[in-house]
Design brief:
The complex is a heterodimer of chains A (482) and B (486). Chain A is of the alpha+beta class and 482 residues long. In chain A, 39% of the residues lie in helices and 20% in strands. Chain B has 486 residues and is an alpha/beta fold. Chain B starts with 5 loop residues before the first helix and ends with a helix. Classes of the chains: A alpha+beta (482), B alpha/beta (486).
Chain lengths: 482, 486
């Protein structure tokens, strides 16, 4: 989609990111996905009378971890507040969230645009809060069920500045954020299960207009593709409305993935008055310098830094480095392969980024489900490095490994693929090829250089592909020269 | 047996003068005989009590008993009790049975106490006369045409009439102290955070604190000792060892400095009450205490501050009662909104609805800063007044507990503001979070009056010591309402 000339979109995202703690934010209940309805709902989660919240310190640690990874400020004192509204999946009649004093504020995230340039996106704040439960309509008649397993699951809501200008920028920001929280190990990133959800605030204005236009908020768009579509739809719709002389209403909208459209859900006038006030059941969260420093020291290497290191340490291209650091698991896999194989780091990069990822893609698997462990993969590359097999044969061995036929060495042995380095055997094969193709020999010697490839192919074929390519080239040139 | 102190009962149990079962049966019989008129119990748990009594007798026989083992107690119906209905004085919870015990219930059970039943109270602890209970008003044993005070009306009536040796209670703005004063009892609200709020149904979370009503400071000390302590399940409970409240009871109070806040002794209290308080000051002076006039300049702001903070928190705490998961649910609602409106409209009484509306208003957009935020600032000033006084060498502060003796039923019921002014002397301690207690200081026209002691954080032991010394020198607290004496 191309935004019409003279127009500009202003986009800000609110991301709800489920923290992968063992238990809920204010109770000891488990938070496993897909459990029997209400089997993970304690009296605290059910909002029973007299029940009190007790803060899960691991949720605080994960929020601080996030804050530090985006260079944000960590509040030395943040406060939980109650956000009131009535809904059956909200057991207490209020959600415990943070309002005036969030735990994380003023961070940054650099995103990469399609033209290769980077853009800095501000992160206004990230606050801790509890998730609500779910209403269940399937299987009920004239009533609804309520599953409170999810109620009380810890979330951080990450609010961006309105710095994004296109749907593509928004998606780039989301992907970057997604990669980051998964890297940090604070969120499983599973969008289908709702672990990473996004609300998009979109407005449009004429370029150069001093003020933002009226914005709409599109709720719960749960895939990167939907976010892109929903934002594009909103931009187009808003421009159309304004150009037709209308005005945009400040409202909440819902994206329908089937139609690709957004629809008004409720207007600002119908919005709840949340009546925020500090939760008197919880003390302010105090983060001391020492506490923050300890978390800072335990931060994993972030994707950006890792990518830089891969370029510097392994001599990789920026493109390969980016690919190989796209997830923490992949980067770890690659580093394990380099260490165990003793092969050249660039060779390892080619194999992991091209062959392995290609094969995994075909199987729709992630690196963590790879049928070949890093150690097994390293064993294959080791055989290339020590010239037991050449690169061409290695591809066949790799295919066999993917197919589960055994380790690299087992396959090489079983198939008799050991490279031929015995020069007399190679010479014999070359001589045989030359003897069988007198015409081509004459043409080659007559100046048809292109035929060199033909002789390489034939000679390689005669050794069943096992000839050491360097030796074969050298000897072939000698023989052809006569 | 019902006139014995806890120490005497404990001695009787050890001396085999009576068993816990006999003691429990004695109180159950008295409840049967007298509570029809008083209405102090909403649930009598005879079977559970006898089981606990038998267990206590076994502990006594085995020599494992603590001081409280086998002593009966009444529990205010605001504390959740596993398997026994906890209604909190409300139709909303008329059928509610919690699957858990409040921490204090657990602690008192563990101490071997025998729960006789659950005690009547103002609905959700909102009231100063026990007239807002869904289960009907409680009568004052000293004059059944008068209120026992509130919200812990059932707690005080049952102890004053000898239907339990001691009872738990809660205090958000005076709900332990005012009813204690009106029924000749000793009631103590400890420091905020000293007793766990887990399992205690919330009215105003930042003010609510559980405590005891008893017939003497000594009895109160024994039970408060067992109730107190840090609880990991309540984030606002204080992680600090519990002081010994009993050993120091006999310490001399010579040289103690007690502050008399001039604002509390201005107009407001009746002539009779003033006379009794002055007499109490004279008695304490004889015991060696020094008195000094002090000023708590912000105390006139206590009532308005309280009536912003408490309803605000209440409106939030009571949002969970929506008819969806437990509690009263309106029949035949055709929409979700109707279900909410009717369940809450039918389940809550008028006073609770009034406070929910006030609270909702003061928290609403555009009013928050003017009301709630402002009230929180004033609350700080009220606390600072006390802090200054304690820093200036004041050990305890003395004041009236209530403006007058118990009033007649219906006296204030159509004037909420007049009703709210009942809490004028007691509210500041809740806003400041400091401990406070009320103890008997004589009678006006045959009706009991009390005075209040307030102390610095965790000064419970000192307060109880002064109260005990006063009770060694006076006999007001030993008087019984005639009808229940024998």
């Amino acid at each position: 989609m191309i935004i019409p000339a003279g127009w500009e979109a202003v986009i800000g995202l609110e991301v709800h990111c489920q923290l992968s703690t063992q238990s809920k934010i204010f109770s000891g209940s488990a938070i496993a996905y897909g459990a029997e309805p209400n089997s993970q709902a304690s009296p605290i989660d059910l909002g029973m009378p007299g029940m009190l919240p007790v803060l899960n310190v691991d949720a605080v640690k994960k929020a601080v971890t996030f804050g530090l990874s985006v260079g944000a400020k960590i509040a030395d004192r943040s406060v939980f507040a109650r956000k009131h509204y009535f809904y059956p999946d909200l057991p207490k009649g209020y959600q415990i969230s943070q309002y005036e004093l969030p735990i994380v504020y003023e961070g940054l995230l650099d995103i990469e645009l399609e033209d290769g340039s980077t853009k800095r996106i501000g992160i206004t704040r990230a606050h801790l809060e509890e998730d609500a439960g779910k209403s269940v309509h399937e299987g009920f008649q004239k009533s609804s069920g309520i599953d409170l397993n999810r109620a009380g699951t810890p979330l951080i809501e990450i609010v961006s500045e309105p710095d994004l200008r296109t749907a593509q920028e928004a998606v780039a920001y989301l992907k970057k954020l997604h990669q980051l929280v998964v890297y940090l190990g604070i969120c499983d990133g599973n969008m289908q299960e709702g672990s990473f959800r996004c609300d998009a605030n979109v407005s449009v204005r004429k370029i150069g207009a001093p003020k933002f236009g009226t914005r709409t908020e599109t709720k719960n768009v749960n895939s990167f593709r939907y976010v892109e579509k929903a934002i594009e739809y909103e931009i187009e719709r808003q421009i159309e409305v304004i150009e037709a002389g209308g005005t945009i209403r400040q409202e909440t909208r819902l994206f329908n993935p089937d139609t690709g459209e957004t629809k008004a859900m409720r207007s600002k006038e119908d919005a709840n008055d949340y009546r925020y006030f500090p939760d008197p059941d919880l003390l302010p969260v105090v983060c001391t310098e020492d506490y923050i420093d300890a978390i800072r020291k335990s931060l994993p290497e972030l994707p950006e830094a890792k990518r830089g290191r891969f370029v510097a340490e392994f001599g990789l291209s920026d493109y390969d480095a980016k690919t190989l650091t796209s997830s923490r698991e992949l980067a770890a896999y690659y580093e394990a392969v380099v260490a165990a194989s003793g092969a050249e780091a660039k060779l390892c990069a080619n194999w992991v980024a091209t062959d392995l990822l290609g094969a995994l893609n075909k199987m729709s698997k992630g690196i963590e489900e790879s049928p070949i462990s890093a150690e097994a993969f390293a064993a294959l590359l080791k055989r290339i490095a020590d010239k037991t097999i050449n690169g061409k044969i290695a591809k066949d061995v790799f295919e066999a490994m993917v197919a589960g036929e055994g380790t690299a060495d087992e396959i090489i042995k079983a198939k008799g693929l050991v490279q031929v380095t015995d020069e007399s055997a190679i010479i014999a094969a070359i001589d045989d090829v030359i003897a069988k193709n007198p015409q081509q020999l004459a043409d080659y010697r007559g100046g048809k250089d292109k035929l060199y490839g033909f002789f390489v192919g034939q000679a390689m074929k005669a050794t069943q592909g096992k000839a050491n390519p360097d030796a074969l080239n050298r000897l072939l040139k000698e023989r052809l020269a006569g | 047996m019902h006139k014995h102190s806890i120490a005497e009962l404990a001695a009787g149990l050890r001396g085999k003068k009576f068993s816990s079962r006999e003691l429990t049966q004695h109180f159950l019989k008295r409840i049967d005989a007298h509570d029809g008129a008083l209405n102090s119990y909403v649930t009598i748990t005879a079977e559970r009590a006898l089981k606990q009594a038998d267990a206590a007798d076994a502990e006594l026989a085995a020599g494992n008993a603590g001081l409280l083992t086998g002593i009966p107690i009444g529990q205010k119906d605001i504390f959740c009790t596993q398997g026994v209905r906890t209604a909190c004085g409300s139709k909303m919870l008329d059928t509610f049975i919690a699957p858990y015990d409040a921490t204090i219930v657990e602690k008192l059970d563990a101490a071997g106490m025998v729960m006789l039943g659950k005690l009547n109270m103002d609905e959700f602890a909102m009231g100063s006369s026990n007239e807002t209970s869904f289960y009907g008003p409680v009568c004052n044993p000293w004059d059944k045409t008068r209120v026992p005070g509130g919200s812990s009306g059932g707690s005080v009536a049952c102890v004053a009439a000898g239907l339990a040796p001691v009872a738990t209670a809660t205090d958000t703005g005076g709900s332990i102290r005012q009813p204690a004063a009106l029924t000749n009892l000793t009631g103590i609200k400890p420091t905020y955070g000293r007793v766990s709020r887990y399992g205690m149904i919330a009215f105003a979370s930042s003010l609510d604190q559980a405590g005891v009503v008893a017939r003497s400071a000594e009895d109160a000390a024994h039970v408060l000792q067992a109730m107190s302590g840090f609880d990991a399940k309540d984030s606002t409970s204080v992680e600090r060892p519990v002081d010994d409240l009993v050993t120091g009871l006999n310490t001399s109070i010579r040289g103690l400095t007690i502050g008399l806040p001039k604002e509390y002794f201005a107009d407001g209290m009746s002539a009779g009450v003033r006379e009794r308080i002055e007499q109490a000051i004279a008695t304490l002076t004889k015991l060696g205490a020094n008195f000094k006039e002090i000023s708590l300049p912000n105390s006139p702001l206590s009532v308005p501050t309280y009536y912003v903070v408490a309803p605000a928190e209440a409106s939030s705490n009571l949002a969970r009662f929506d008819g969806v998961r437990y509690g009263h649910r309106a029949e035949g609602a055709k929409s979700l909104e109707e279900l909410y409106k009717r369940s809450r409209g039918e389940g809550f009484g008028a006073e609770v609805q009034r406070r929910i509306m006030i609270g909702t208003y003061v928290l609403s957009h555009g009013y928050y800063d003017a009301y709630y935020l402002q009230a929180q600032k004033v609350r700080r000033l009220i606390y600072d007044d006390f802090k200054r006084a304690f820093a200036d060498g004041i050990d305890l502060v003395l004041s009236p507990t209530a403006t007058d003796v118990a009033f007649k039923f219906g006296h204030n019921s159509d004037d909420p503001v007049a009703m709210y002014l009942n809490d004028i002397y007691t509210i500041a301690a809740n806003l400041a979070g400091i401990p406070a207690m009320s103890l008997p200081c004589g009678f006006v026209d045959g009706l009991p009056t009390g005075f209040q002691l307030m102390g610095n954080f965790f000064a419970e032991a000192r307060m109880l010591n002064v109260a005990h010394q006063y009770q060694q020198a006076t006999d007001f607290h030993t008087k019984w309402p005639t009808e229940y004496a024998s």
